[in-house]
Amino acid sequence: MRKHAIAGAGQDAQLHYSKQSKIWTKSFILAIFVVSILAVISLFTGVYDIRGQEDGWEMFFITRVPRTIALILTGAAMAMAGLVMQLITQNRFVEPTTTGTIEWAGLGLLLVYLLVPAPSLVLRMSGAILFSFIGTMIFFLFLRRVRLRSSLIVPIIGLMLGAVISSVSTFLGLFFQMSQVVENWFVGSFTSVQVGRYEYLWIIVIVTILIFIYANKLTLAGLGEDISTSLGVNYNGLILLANALIAVAVGVVAAVIGNLPFLGLIVPNIVSLFRGDDLRTNLPWVCVIGMGTIMVSDIISRTIIMPFEVPVSLILGTMGAVVFIVILLRQRKTRRVS
């Protein structure tokens, strides 16, 4: 009787895993459909009357289409970066905003402006990617030296590092009279997106493919150095690869759009709440929900005080702060019950 019970439990677990491992489910198709509707709403949301003006449809393809594509790619990039960072640090509160990665990208942009007058987008993007990688590696070096790795200590370390780097950027901006660069970067917005100014965001597609290819190994790396090494995985090499992919995604977004806080915190936590922590099966969900989240935020930013526009970073920051508090309270309640 006991053997039958164990076998039945094993079959139930296997059936549950097979359901979770499927990507093209009805719920996922529904999520794609909802995001598609949001994309259509985004295309036709704005002050400029594209149907009532002679050059309306020309402006539609110059500004509206690039903006919607940029929203889709950016949402996927930042949500995906948060997912990978949470996996390899084994911490729900880690994402580019809470590790200082975003602030390092801003410092890289500022230094490029100081060294090269009127730098091209490629130079700005290169500086942001390089400093994002450096900042993420410094965060991991700090993390290795911290013995107490509670769920709150890790993001506190990241926030402290980010605050220091942000102060350095502010000081350099004021000292060299480049504070406008810092201010423009801090206010993440899609208002300047148009044809010729967003195409480098397509690099995010390559990053997504690489993360999907290495998904199983990155999942093993998320188990910790000892376990992953015993399973034959090059832990240090995977950490370098993960940091490089995160740096590319964050750097490209920082150079083209600016600071987009908490997106990498909101989405992976919502997905993990319902689907667990498997990177390969969660990645499509995280990308799709990331797209939907940022499109909702952008639509709100364009309509809340129309004809004016609120920076999308303000909407994301507000939503992210609320979700952050909810996760904290939920985790505290779980600990009390246990």
Automatic annotation (TrEMBL):
Gene3D superfamilies: ABC transporter involved in vitamin B12 uptake, BtuC. GO terms for cellular component: plasma membrane. Keywords: Cell membrane, Membrane, Transmembrane, Transmembrane helix, Transport. Pfam families: FecCD. The chain crosses the membrane at residues 28-48, 68-88, 100-116, 122-143, 152-178, 198-215, 227-246, 252-271, 283-305, 311-329. GO terms for biological process: siderophore-iron import into cell. It is a multi-pass membrane protein. InterPro entries: ABC_BtuC-like, ABC_transptr_permease_BtuC. It is found in: Cell membrane. GO terms for molecular function: transmembrane transporter activity. Belongs to the binding-protein-dependent transport system permease family. FecCD subfamily. PANTHER family: FERRIC ENTEROBACTIN TRANSPORT SYSTEM PERMEASE PROTEIN, PETROBACTIN IMPORT SYSTEM PERMEASE PROTEIN YCLN. This is Iron chelate uptake ABC transporter family permease subunit.
